[in-house]
Specification:
heterodimer, A: 2 strands, B: 15 helices
């Protein structure tokens, strides 16, 4: 993984990394990718991906309201709220 | 008052030998006297003692809720607890007090158990050594220069040192069984879907499963009776009648077919561990079980497969930690994306960042098929290996770990060496099966060795039954680390 890819992935992952850390990330992540590339030893062309450990379908439930209003309680642990709204930096000018 | 099995503590409580307040206080005192192990992140004496008092009052009124009423249980700090901090071992959850209880916490509460505190753990359960917590390194009471294993490190170490009579943990790739092996206790990872994941902070949702760490399989069964069962709030919870794990403990093992996967005894397995496992197999033979060699041909690919699937799921699950709704937020930033990036850079530790980055890469455009989809296909082959093995046997047995507890700092610079600790435990999560580790010997340095028992899907009760029968005939699970009062 080159430095350009590291910076791209860091942006996708929303993790800020210092320019000084990029080389180390590139080396670390490359080693891990090299390690997981062992997977290619097996031909899986005719194998269907297993997305749930037991191939179970998720349960369906009735379409009815199960949540009740707990806004105040949820917002009590937020870093910044005002009049029931979460505050973040301005997104729309 | 000595630490002992839950059933005996329950008898003492009902016989009036001591009260829940006295019992709880004695554990709180032990915790306070063992700061060097660093096993707890949060202990709230007033909170725990209030629950203990309520239990004592219930008992006086004759309203005992379950065999665990009044017994203090330590909870891994990954389970959300109303009224007590939940950190998941991470800086990013600074000051987070959950507005609700996880189902597991609620079930113990409904059974009258006392919450003894929240145990230290690898950050977001990502680690095999108890070294990645924001709250510092956790130590193994058998040798405090060594790791307790991870990620349920605090739960296992506290239990081994007698700081709690039982604890909860979670297991995504071995996080209950591996620390149980390193600390000489019994740890059980239930079948996927057996224990509710509601309120259990998600690491890799298709692999995560909560379970007990206890002094014996019998205690683990007692805890499972309380913590397992269907929960409509977890979409992957499997509808089932309330299971009776304790009820199956005494089943005879005559004729039990034990499969021993050849791949679990290859290069890299410490010789004393192999010897201990072979000795244990002989004990089962004496009980009338048949031993049969089986093969799990894709074993070698489990760790690479896991290190695509788990980080991919983690990269998605951990996107909720962005400084908006809870926890830490960076102080200075220019715009919204900058706030996310700085908050997460400050809030996550090195291993969590590494895995989120790997997972983001594996799911990114152009790489999805080569990594994530490839891993899902392999996962099917791995699960099918188990199906074939279970066609000719009832349980599988082998070592839990290739080595015993290693020195603190030994593998922190080498992520891959660290990942390979879980080589025997990861396959079980990939296939969604129940797995247990229990003490089966000590190595020449006096460190505990874990024997792993793997069961068929939803055959959890049999795994506990098999372990209990072994523990009836052996005494490895009763060994204590020197220097810690039993």
């Amino acid at each position: 993984m080159d430095n350009k890819t590291v910076n791209h992935i860091a942006t996708l992952a929303r993790i800020g990394i210092d320019p000084g850390e990029v080389d180390e990330y590139a080396a670390d992540l490359s080693r891990i990718l090299e390690f997981v590339a062992q997977m290619n030893a097996v031909d899986t062309a005719d194998v269907a991906p297993l997305t749930h450990p037991r191939d179970r379908l998720l349960r369906m439930r009735e379409d009815r309201v199960t949540e009740f209003d707990q806004r105040d309680e949820f917002q009590r642990v937020a870093p910044s709220v005002e009049t029931g709204l979460y505050l973040v930096p301005r997104v729309i000018e | 008052m000595s630490t002992t099995e839950l059933s005996s503590l329950a008898r003492s409580l009902s016989g009036g030998a001591f009260s829940s307040v006295e019992l709880t206080q004695s554990y709180l005192d032990r915790i306070a006297a063992a700061p060097e192990l660093n096993t707890f992140i949060t202990v709230d004496e007033a909170f725990s003692l209030a629950q203990a008092r309520a239990s004592d009052e219930r008992r006086r009124r004759g309203e005992v809720l379950s065999p665990l009423d009044g017994i203090p249980i330590a909870h891994k700090d990954i389970f959300c607890t109303r009224g007590m901090l939940t950190t998941c071992g991470s800086h990013i959850l600074d000051g987070f007090v959950s507005p609700y209880d996880a189902t597991v916490i609620e079930r113990f509460g409904n059974g009258g158990a006392v919450t003894l505190g929240k145990t230290n753990m690898d950050e977001f359960a990502m680690g095999s050594s108890g070294e990645t917590s924001y709250y510092g390194v956790i130590r193994n009471p058998w040798d405090t220069s060594r790791v307790p294993g991870g990620s349920s490190a605090g739960s296992a170490a506290a239990l081994a040192a007698g700081l709690c009579p039982a604890a909860t943990g979670t297991d995504t790739g071995g996080s209950i069984r591996q620390p149980a092996a390193f600390c000489g206790v019994t740890g059980f990872k239930p079948s996927y879907g057996q224990v509710s994941r509601y309120g259990m902070i998600a690491f890799a949702s298709s692999l995560d499963q909560g379970g007990p760490l206890a002094r014996s399989a019998r205690d683990a069964a007692l805890m499972m009776d309380v913590m397992a069962g269907f929960d409509s709030r977890d979409a992957t919870s499997v509808p089932q009648d309330q299971p009776d794990f304790s009820g199956a403990l005494d089943n005879d093992l005559k004729g039990l077919r034990i499969g021993v996967p050849a791949e679990f005894f290859g290069a890299g397995l410490d010789e004393p561990i192999e010897r201990a496992v072979r000795d244990a197999l002989r004990v089962f033979e004496e009980m009338g079980a048949q031993i049969k060699e089986v093969s799990l041909p894709n074993s070698e690919l489990c760790v690479p497969c896991y290190y695509v699937i788990a980080p991919s799921e983690a990269s998605s699950n951990l996107s909720r930690f962005d400084g908006v709704r809870f926890g830490h937020r960076a102080k200075e930033y220019d715009d919204l994306v900058g706030m996310y990036m700085k908050t997460r850079a400050e809030g996550f530790g090195a291993e969590v960042k590494r895995r989120v980055m790997i997972g983001t890469f594996a799911l990114s455009a152009g790489y999805y098929d080569a990594y994530y989809n490839k891993a899902l296909k392999l996962r099917r082959l791995i699960a099918e290996d188990f199906d074939r093995a279970f066609a000719e046997c009832d349980v599988l047995m082998g070592p839990t770990t290739p080595t015993t507890a290693f020195p603190i700092g030994d593998k922190t610079d080498d992520p891959i060496a660290m990942y390979l600790n879980d080589i025997f435990t990861i396959p079980v999560n990939l296939a969604g099966l129940p797995g247990l580790s229990m003490p089966a010997g000590l190595d020449p340095a006096g460190l505990p060795i874990g024997l792993q028992v793997i069961g068929r899907y939803f055959d959890d009760a049999r795994v506990l039954n098999v372990a209990h029968q072994y523990q009836r005939r052996t005494e490895w699970h009763t060994r204590w680390p020197e220097g810690w009062p039993s």
